[in-house]
Amino acid sequence: MTVIESAVELNLPIDKVYHFLEDLNNHQQLMPENIYNWSSTADEASFTIQNMAKLAIKISSRVPNSEIIAVPTEKPPFDVELKWTVEPSENGGTIAKHIITADLNMMMKMLASGPLQKLADHQTQKLKEAIV
Fold first, then answer.
1. Residue 8: which of 107, 127, 102, 88 has the closest Cα?
2. Which InterPro entries does the entry mention (predicted)?
3. What is the pLDDT of residues 33-53, one digit of tens each?
4. Please, what is the Cα angle at 97 between 81 and 78, to 5 degrees?
């Protein structure tokens, strides 16, 4: 399994960050420009990644003020799990961590791990802008 992580510290309470992340409608604000055809509800989202694939995800697990896990609703080219965790920071704010776990063979790992890391980093930085 390939695990890709990106974290950001926010000067906001955990419940506010969690509430934003638990609604997939808000995730459109976190996506890079190469994502289009976005469609979402609170629990499901579908979108197209330019020059790659169409992806549909749904929330599979919610732990209030702790984590949200989304998984594909249709069989993707490889198994993938998208997880957001929130925990208190030392400054009284929140550390939001985006964790992408993907079952990649060596060839796919070489091709996909860079773009997946870039996506995770982009989303955590956009979270800082979107939720303030």
1. 127
2. START-like_dom_sf
3. 988 999 999 999 998 877 767
4. 20
Q: Can you read off the two tokens belonging to residue 95? A: 């550390």
Exposed, middle or buried, 114 (CB in 10 Å: 0-12/13-18/19+)?
exposed
What is the structure's pLDDT at 34?
Answer: 87
Q: Find the helix or strand (DSSP H, E) in which 48 lies.
A: strand 44-49
Find out whether 46 and 33 touch, Cβ atoms under 8 Å.
no
Q: How far is CA 97 from CA 15, 73, 89, 91, 108, in A?
A: 15, 23, 12, 16, 24
The structure tokens 């992340």 sit at 21
CA 22/CA 86 separation, integer angstroms: 11
The number of CA neighbours under 13 Å toward the Cβ of 12 is 19
Q: Could you give the domains of the chain?
A: 2-131 (3.30.530.20)
Read off φ and ψ for residue 71, nearest 5 degrees.
Answer: -135, 160
